[in-house]
Amino acid sequence: MAIGPGNLQLTKNIKVQTFRYCEPRGRNEGLRIGTTRLPPRGVTRERWQADGYFDVWFPVLAPSRALLRRFRGTVIDLSTYELFCASYERELLASAIGRQAVQLIAAV
């Protein structure tokens, strides 16, 4: 699994794209999966999809608080982003739950 700016290539046939909250949905975008540790503050579940947050919330795929703290306040350039992505990938795939979650998303 290789992660690059804006997308994550799981296999040659499956491409997962990232998005920002409240961005307009792209043409043929598909299912938006929220991978945040906590749901959006003050937004009810009924409004997640309607307000452009995400269709389903799947916090199992969220980066750990420790990883987010490690990169908080840093300048986000390409090398920092790539380091974050590599760290996130290692963290995600180090646990059975993370690996299973990635396999589930790939199968969907």
Mean pLDDT: 82
> What's the alpha carbon Rg, rounded to whole Å?
14 Å
Largest sheet: 3 strands, antiparallel
Q: List low-pLDDT spans.
A: 1-11
Ends apart, CA distance between termini: 16 Å
Number of β-strand runs: 5
The number of helical segments is: 4
Strand content bin: 5-15%
Helix % is 25-40%
Strand order of the largest sheet: 1-2-3
Instruction: Categorize the overall geometry.
Output: globular
| Structural class label | alpha+beta
Q: Please provide the ordered H/E string of secondary-structure elements.
A: EEEEHEHHH
Structure description:
The protein is 39% helix and 12% strand. Strands 1-2-3 form a 3-stranded antiparallel β-sheet. Strands 4-5 form a two-stranded parallel ribbon. The chain is built from 4 helices and 5 strands; from the N terminus they run E-E-E-E-H-E-H-H-H. By secondary structure, the protein is α+β, with helices and mostly antiparallel strands. The chain starts with a strand and ends with a helix. The radius of gyration is 14 Å and the shape is globular. 3% of the residues are buried. The longest helix is centred in the C-terminal third of the chain and has 17 residues, at 78-94. Helix 3 crosses helix 4. It has a domain at 2-28 and 61-107.
